[in-house]
Amino acid sequence: TTDYMLAKVLTEAGFKDYGEIKIPFYKTYDSIVVKSARVIKQDGSIIEVPAEMMKDISDASTEAMNIYESDALNRVITFKNLEVGDCVELLVEDHLYHAPMEGQFDGMEVFQVFEPMISKEVVVIGPKSLPLRHITMNGKVKFSEKQMGDKVRYTWSAENVDRIIQEPAMPSLTEIAPTVIFSTIESWETVSKWWNEMAGTQMELND
Questions:
Q1: pTM
Q2: Rounded Cα–Cα distance for residues 34 and 90 (Å)
């Protein structure tokens, strides 16, 4: 999966949000490759983020639950010399080498967040023999589907999206913002059988 982001810092709050970016990953299944991380200054000059400003740390959410999970990590990228008016540009690859459910693919994308967005586009390309099932919750986004020989290209996009005003104790963004969910898995029954085969043997009692 390739992720590209370009964000302009307009306020002090934006400076706090983008001065340090965390990318979650689970090293049992995937690895993160930062292809490019840089600050674009107001005068057009570019400051590349050096390797020593990118570190892997334990995921705080597991620690908060008092769970030690050494494989749940965050790649933390610190954008040094960032100021209000600058841009943050990031290009990251997520390499999945061990799918949780063999031969299947799934994902979820939120199309409205706490900052305004000029545009967001999500593209999934997969084999025609493994059709992608998808649904959009909590609103609408533009969608198109294109045949490409033995593959299919699915595209979701949105432009000029207002920000969500953050409130104390509010529900997660996936419950209130336009959210696209996609999967090659046929049904929840398929998921249930897969989980039972994997977990059932762990629950057999001995003497």
A1: 0.84
A2: 8
